[in-house]
Design brief:
The complex is a heterodimer of chains A (about 200) and B (about 300). With about 200 residues, chain A is mainly α. Chain A has 8 helices and no strands. Chain B is an alpha+beta fold. In chain B, the strands form 2 sheets. Chain B has a 4-stranded mixed beta sheet, covered by helices on one side. A two-stranded antiparallel sheet of chain B has the order 5-6. Classes of the chains: A mainly alpha (about 200), B alpha+beta (about 300).
Chain lengths: ~200, ~300
């Protein structure tokens, strides 16, 4: 997917049209990421089930609940940003997991995994937030996934407000996840760095 | 002999107690420690034999936990505590007041043009809700006998948010001017109401039975058994029939009001009570070797 994105960008020098190229891959692979939660649960991948489930849920939501549901956002810069950020992250992350399965991980890869996120995370989050923000007027106008009174179930749901709540939830959640990654970085390669300089 | 109080997490020695006999209990240790640190009232102190072990009971004697010649005992501060009674009264008074505000002052919530003839079922629902929480308050004061005197202070915020939040959520929709009465009309209302009332009675019967199981002022634990009241016969099939009846009551309420938020509230409660039931079931099986094997935690034959 990364190759496709870069290729398309070179062709047109613009982010317009990138989504068209990659959408099928995005849908298939991000949804397949649900398997990752299973892998953590059964232990072949050493990551927290809760954190992984959280990330997969948020990605699947962004892909299907926002990007797929509101076609008008396809060609916005936000979508390109998060696709790019996710694609680079995945390339590193899956290589890392593959090598882990074989037993040894090249230090360079480990370093990439715990360093690239410093830039990629904010880029990805900005892209995600921009995408949701751009989708808002459309969601409000179309009333998608929303339900109003009166109805037989005596319930209501406003997808527009829900999306705003989601955006607000990034405020407490993003710093926590980011700091967790920074702490992991300290733990896993912080020590090695000092050993190397010795 | 000398007892060294060590902080369970940091390993630091907090105090040394000299004048305790081997027959002294954990409660004596707590009392002595409180003399040194007055802000640590008894309910806030937790002692263990191992740094990460289970809390020792107040009645445990030092000589029975390997400290007959002195040694280390590990301390954890449980934080500010509130009595269970305080917490329950707060948790349950909220939903009562909140629901009644939505019911009796609709103009406050839905705007000035909120007045409109109400379906009969909305009145019945308000009566049921009020009855449920009034019953809970009554039971908290007169029926329940608590094993632990207190719980951590944080719980009151967490629990109140749950109860009060759901109260507002359900009350908003049932008392809404655009509320739609159940599809099968009065028949559905009466069916739901009957279910609600029978289950409330069942729940109350179990609470009374559990109370009678434990003599006043003691912390005795016995296996509950079916008695003459038919509603207690559920004990032969489940460990926590009070939870079973509680789910049943809210199912009745949901059917009666045909309201999805009420259904979500029922589901949330059922989930939490199932977790509690599994815990209690496990404890009973551990404590009593002859615990009846046919019993399930909360749903007969299933869960």
């Amino acid at each position: 997917m990364l190759v496709l994105v870069i290729g398309q960008y070179m062709k047109t020098r613009h982010h317009f049209g990138i989504f068209n190229e990659v959408d099928r891959f995005l849908y298939v692979f991000q949804t397949a990421a649900v398997l990752e939660v299973l892998h953590c649960a059964i232990g072949i991948v050493r990551s927290s089930v809760v954190l992984t489930a959280f990330q997969v849920t948020s990605r699947v939501f962004l892909v299907w609940g926002v990007t797929y549901s509101v076609p008008q956002v396809h060609n916005t810069i936000g979508v390109t940003m998060f696709i790019l950020a996710w694609a680079v992250t995945e390339v590193i992350r899956y290589s890392f997991y593959t090598f882990s399965l074989f037993g040894t991980v090249p230090y360079m890869l480990q370093w990439c995994r715990y360093t690239f996120f410093i830039l990629l995370y904010p880029i990805g989050v900005t892209g995600e937030l921009l995408t949701i923000y751009t989708s808002l007027p459309r969601v409000k106008a179309s009333g998608i996934y929303s339900m109003q009174l009166p109805n037989k179930l005596n319930a209501s749901f406003d997808y527009y407000s829900f999306l705003i709540l989601i955006m607000l939830s990034y405020i407490p959640i993003f710093p926590q996840l980011y700091c967790h990654m920074l702490a992991q970085r300290q733990k896993i390669i912080g020590g090695k760095m000092t050993k190397k300089t010795q | 002999m000398e007892i060294e109080i060590v902080h369970a997490k940091s390993g630091k020695t907090l105090a040394t107690l000299q004048n305790l006999a081997p027959s002294a209990t954990v409660l004596d240790v707590k009392k002595e420690y409180k003399k040194l640190k007055p802000h640590l009232y008894i309910e806030r102190q937790s002692f263990r034999s191992e740094p990460r072990g289970k809390s020792l009971k107040d009645e445990d004697q030092l000589r029975n936990i390997g400290l007959d010649k002195g040694g280390k005992i590990y301390f954890k501060d449980l934080g500010p505590q509130l009595s269970w009674t305080t917490v329950f009264l707060t948790e349950y008074a909220g939903p009562l007041v909140i629901y009644l505000i939505f019911y009796s002052r609709p103009a406050l919530i839905y705007g000035a043009n909120a007045t409109r003839t109400r379906a009969q079922v909305v009145n019945v629902a308000a009566a049921c809700w009020t009855f449920h929480y009034a019953k809970r308050l009554f039971e908290t004061i007169f029926i329940h006998r608590f094993s632990h005197a207190t719980m951590p202070i944080f719980n009151i915020f967490k629990n109140s948010m749950y109860y009060w939040g759901f109260a507002a959520y359900v009350a908003y929709y049932v008392n809404h001017p655009l509320y739609t009465p159940p599809a099968f009309g009065d028949r559905q209302m009466y069916l739901g109401l009957a279910g609600f009332l029978i289950n409330e009675l069942g729940n109350f019967s179990i609470h009374v039975a559990l109370r009678n199981l434990r003599p006043p002022g003691t912390k005795v634990r016995k296996i509950p058994m079916p008695a003459s009241n038919p509603l207690t016969w559920l004990f032969s099939l489940v460990t926590c029939p009070n939870y079973t009846y509680e789910i049943g009551a809210w199912l009745g309420f949901t059917i009666m009001t045909q309201c999805l938020p009420a259904g979500l509230f029922t589901l949330a409660g059922a989930y939490q009570m199932t977790l509690w039931a599994w815990g209690k079931h496990r404890n009973y099986k551990k404590e009593f070797k002859d615990y009846p094997k046919v019993r399930k935690p909360i749903i007969p034959f299933l869960l």
